[in-house]
């Protein structure tokens, strides 16, 4: 079945189709969540909670072919909801080998991205790291393309300013 | 090229280098898969856990809901039921109940079509299906606010306006394609002590404190449709499962369900919360499932009905039970030092917090909650002997990768001021005993 067919089946209550659909998206969800939340436990929690919300709200999704963008929107909303995370336990997470994401070759840039404000960080993750087009980002965030452009500009400006004040901007 | 352009280009280059690190980020596939599965499970459970039980003659602790998977019935049934106008949504709710589908197929559905409408909102009881043991009420709600939260209380009244002494469940409304219309059902358990009334009123009351709105639909119940349709199958056999004695007394077959009466011997060393993976299997390998039971040690277990497709042979099968040594049911807990004396090993207190008037105690429980039984308490007493209720527990398998323990949060109602050592009695616990059993049920003696 195509993802759209899976979505339609899932909307009719087929939990297996929904699980299959989630499997197609789980790596992307994990990366976005990790880039946002910085640790494995929280990223997995985000996947679990997004799955929960998506499954509950699935019938409200009008256009099955938008499942992917809709799901990312749910995840981003979860990640942005700081309150949720604070009220939870922080169990000891498994110690895992750090990846190059955690030990970046360019730590200044990595730090600058992670300290961006919410809107800007979303834009950088979606546009640069996930490689979504302006239109796709606009769909995910439910904002006009023009706003995507201006946010992107703002995000790059913030990054540049941050890196410049560190005194290591390129000249 | 301007300096600004140059600095942007350099920044993009650095971002692209970071993109490579992003793309090669290791994804713990197994753990992510587990997280997805728990998300689905919780969503499915939540749907179930919104089922509310109303009870009067049946004690609160005696009602147990088990969570089982779905089964599909043949497309023929489904297409038949889908022809019922306005009830397409209901079909998906009862599709897992072969017995109910067959009963509808045998024209046991009573069309009602009575509506109460005011303030731009309406409730219509579309139809019912009933026998002496159960009634399923199909209804639709239109234009009512707050349906997402289902802020309504349901009352069932007999012809004298008295509350029926029955247990019933109702689920979250299912959104239909038309957002203003919700289709749903109420599932009522009747017994020899409480039979269906001649005339039934279903009352929906807004829980909103400001609103006193209510909708009331009254309609006659045709009891002749299923009169005399009841078959008692004596069993009178004993199962020994992991040293525990379980007497299977009889099965009663109605059009809407089969009721199996069993007895957990009071002398058993273990408290049995429920039998695991219980099903009735016929000679064709068809499984008739159960999702509900009532009672404590004397228990009625409700299965799908095979009334209209009587098998030649029927076998009761199970994989064991959920239960705990009776001596481990009681524990004392020091709220300050978090020390637990007694109780099952693997139970730890993690912390507690006050929320309003309530105290929420967080426990770590060995194992996962996948079996359907959660850590729950039916009684808590503080050092002064005052007793408290623990109406709810919530849990998260939030560790994602770690299936070896689960965090359960138990809410002690009005327990905010409790201090020192408290006594707690466990009503259910996620401890499973694997010990497969089977027993022939003599359907055609």
Would you kindly provide a written description of the structure presented here, covering whatever features stand out?
The complex is a heterodimer of chains A (171) and B (445). Chain A is mainly alpha-helical. With 445 residues, chain B is mainly β. Chain B has three domains: 177 residues, Conserved domain protein (Immunoglobulin-like, Sandwich); 103 residues, Immunoglobulin-like; 104 residues. In chain B, strands 1, 11, 12, 13, 14, 15, 16, 17, 18 and 28 form a ten-stranded antiparallel beta sheet that branches. The relative contact order of chain B is 0.12. At the A-B interface, helix 2, helix 3, helix 6, helix 7 and helix 9 of A face helix 1, helix 2 and strand 7 of B.
Based on secondary structure, the structural category of chain B is: mainly beta
> How many domains make up the 3D coordinates of chain A?
2
Distance N terminus to C terminus of chain A?
52 Å
Question: Remind me, CATH topology of the largest domain in chain B?
Answer: Immunoglobulin-like
What is the alpha-carbon Rg of chain B in Å?
26 Å
How are helices and strands ordered from N to C of chain A?
HHHHHHHHH
- For this structure, what is the CATH homologous superfamily of the largest domain in chain A? RNA polymerase sigma factor, region 2, helix turn helix motif
Tell me, what's the shape of chain A? globular
| Helix run count of chain A | 9
CATH class of the largest domain in chain A: Mainly Alpha
How does the major sheet of chain B shape up? Answer: 10 strands, antiparallel
Share in helix of chain A:
55-70%
The domain tally of chain B reads 3
- Give the overall average pLDDT of chain B: 80
| Helix content percent band of chain B | 10-25%
The CATH homologous superfamily name of the largest domain in chain B equals Conserved domain protein
Low-confidence stretches of chain A: 82-97
In CATH, the topology of the largest domain in chain A is named Rna Polymerase Sigma Factor, Chain: A
């Amino acid at each position: 079945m195509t993802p759209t067919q899976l979505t339609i089946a899932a909307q009719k209550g087929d939990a297996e189709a929904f699980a299959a659909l989630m499997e197609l998206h789980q790596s992307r969800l994990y990366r976005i969540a990790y880039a946002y939340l910085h640790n494995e436990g929280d990223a997995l929690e985000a996947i679990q909670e997004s799955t929960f919300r998506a499954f509950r709200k699935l019938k409200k999704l009008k256009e099955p072919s938008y499942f992917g963008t809709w799901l990312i929107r749910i995840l981003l909303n979860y990640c942005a909801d700081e309150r949720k995370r604070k009220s939870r336990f922080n169990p000891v997470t498994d110690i895992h080998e750090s990846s190059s994401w955690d030990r970046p070759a360019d730590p200044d840039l990595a730090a600058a991205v992670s300290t961006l404000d919410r809107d800007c960080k979303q834009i950088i993750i979606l546009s640069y790291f996930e490689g979504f087009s302006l239109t796709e980002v606009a769909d995910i965030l439910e904002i006009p393309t023009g706003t995507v452009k201006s946010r992107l500009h703002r995000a790059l400006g913030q990054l540049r300013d941050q890196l410049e004040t560190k005194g290591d901007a390129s000249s | 090229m301007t300096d600004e352009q140059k600095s942007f280009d350099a920044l993009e280059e650095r971002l692209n280098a970071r993109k490579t690190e992003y793309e090669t980020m290791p994804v713990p596939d197994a753990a992510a898969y587990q997280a997805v599965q728990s998300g689905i499970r919780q969503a499915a459970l939540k749907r179930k856990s919104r089922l509310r039980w109303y009870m009067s003659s049946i004690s609160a602790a005696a009602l147990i809901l088990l969570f089982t998977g779905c089964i599909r019935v043949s497309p023929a049934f489904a297409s038949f039921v889908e022809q019922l106008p306005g009830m397409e949504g209901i079909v998906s709710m009862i599709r897992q109940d072969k017995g109910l589908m067959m009963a509808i197929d045998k024209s046991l559905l009573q069309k009602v079509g009575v509506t109460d409408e005011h303030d731009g909102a309406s409730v219509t009881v579309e139809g019912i299906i009933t026998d002496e043991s159960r009634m399923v009420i199909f209804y639709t709600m239109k234009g009512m606010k707050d349906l997402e939260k289902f802020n309504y209380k349901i009352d069932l009244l007999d012809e004298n306006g008295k509350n029926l002494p029955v247990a019933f469940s109702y689920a979250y409304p299912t959104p239909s394609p038309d957002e203003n219309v919700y289709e749903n059902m109420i599932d009522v358990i009747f017994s020899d002590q409480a039979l269906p009334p001649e005339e039934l009123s279903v009352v929906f009351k807004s829980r909103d404190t400001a609103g006193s709105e209510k909708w009331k639909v009254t309609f006659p119940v045709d009891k002749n449709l299923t009169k005399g349709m009841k078959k008692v199958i004596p069993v009178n056999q004993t199962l020994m499962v992991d040293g525990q004695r379980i007497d299977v007394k009889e099965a009663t077959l109605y059009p809407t369900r089969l009721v199996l009466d069993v007895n957990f011997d009071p002398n058993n060393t273990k408290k049995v919360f429920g039998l695991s993976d219980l099903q009735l299997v016929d000679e064709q390998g068809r499984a008739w499932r159960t999702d509900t039971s009532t009672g404590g040690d004397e228990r009625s277990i409700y299965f799908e009905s095979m009334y209209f497709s009587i098998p030649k042979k029927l076998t009761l099968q199970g994989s064991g039970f959920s239960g705990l040594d009776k001596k481990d049911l009681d524990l004392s807990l020091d709220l300050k030092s978090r020390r637990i004396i007694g109780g099952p090993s693997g139970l730890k207190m993690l912390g507690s917090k006050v929320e309003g008037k309530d105290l929420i105690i967080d426990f770590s429980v060995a194992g996962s909650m996948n079996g359907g039984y959660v850590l729950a308490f039916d009684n808590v007493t503080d050092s002064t002997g005052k007793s408290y209720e623990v109406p709810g527990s919530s849990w998260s398998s939030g560790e994602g990768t770690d299936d070896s323990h689960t965090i359960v949060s138990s809410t002690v109602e009005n327990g905010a001021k409790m201090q020192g050592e408290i006594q707690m009695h466990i009503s259910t616990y996620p401890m499973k005993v694997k010990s497969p059993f089977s027993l022939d049920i003599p359907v055609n003696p």
